[in-house]
Amino acid sequence: MKQLSNINIKNKRATFDYELLDTYTAGLVLTGTEIKSIRLGKASLVDTFCIFEKSGLWVRNMNISEYFYGSYNNHVARRDRKLLLNSKELKKIERMVKETGYTIVPTRLFINDKGLAKLNIAVARGKKQYDKRQSLKEKDDKRMLDRVMKR
């Protein structure tokens, strides 16, 4: 019987800075010590973004800390990692990103029930300053409403 993984690393900044339009779940090409570090929860999606290069979609600046019990074979913490999506999804994402103002942002890193690391990515549009203020106001209003409802 497999034990369900509770690894769920989120990019909280993404929902604040961007308006998420379309989401996808992609696999990652990782080395052995990288997956071990992710299973320990030693990863971060802060300042992470995705780009297209000639051989596919890559995630840049994702920090997976070195594995504590690793040897001289340990991985580099902030290397580029390839994302695994089918060609239909890649073409659709590439078409959307070619329009001005759109970018690809990783939103969540998790381990699925088969034990594989997956990354949720979203095609997003950057928010303006007044949109961010509106988001903060809505968040505060929701918190206030929750407090009133608990009483």
TrEMBL record:
<dbReference type="InterPro" id="IPR020081">
    <property type="entry name" value="SsrA-bd_prot_CS"/>
</dbReference>
<keyword id="KW-0694">RNA-binding</keyword>
<keyword id="KW-0963">Cytoplasm</keyword>
<dbReference type="GO" id="GO:0003723">
    <property type="term" value="F:RNA binding"/>
</dbReference>
<dbReference type="GO" id="GO:0070930">
    <property type="term" value="P:trans-translation-dependent protein tagging"/>
</dbReference>
<dbReference type="InterPro" id="IPR000037">
    <property type="entry name" value="SsrA-bd_prot"/>
</dbReference>
<dbReference type="InterPro" id="IPR023620">
    <property type="entry name" value="SmpB"/>
</dbReference>
<dbReference type="GO" id="GO:0005829">
    <property type="term" value="C:cytosol"/>
</dbReference>
<protein>
    <recommendedName>
        <fullName>SsrA-binding protein</fullName>
    </recommendedName>
</protein>
<dbReference type="Pfam" id="PF01668">
    <property type="entry name" value="SmpB"/>
</dbReference>
<comment type="similarity">
    <text>Belongs to the SmpB family.</text>
</comment>
<dbReference type="GO" id="GO:0070929">
    <property type="term" value="P:trans-translation"/>
</dbReference>
<comment type="function">
    <text>Required for rescue of stalled ribosomes mediated by trans-translation. Binds to transfer-messenger RNA (tmRNA), required for stable association of tmRNA with ribosomes. tmRNA and SmpB together mimic tRNA shape, replacing the anticodon stem-loop with SmpB. tmRNA is encoded by the ssrA gene; the 2 termini fold to resemble tRNA(Ala) and it encodes a 'tag peptide', a short internal open reading frame. During trans-translation Ala-aminoacylated tmRNA acts like a tRNA, entering the A-site of stalled ribosomes, displacing the stalled mRNA.</text>
</comment>
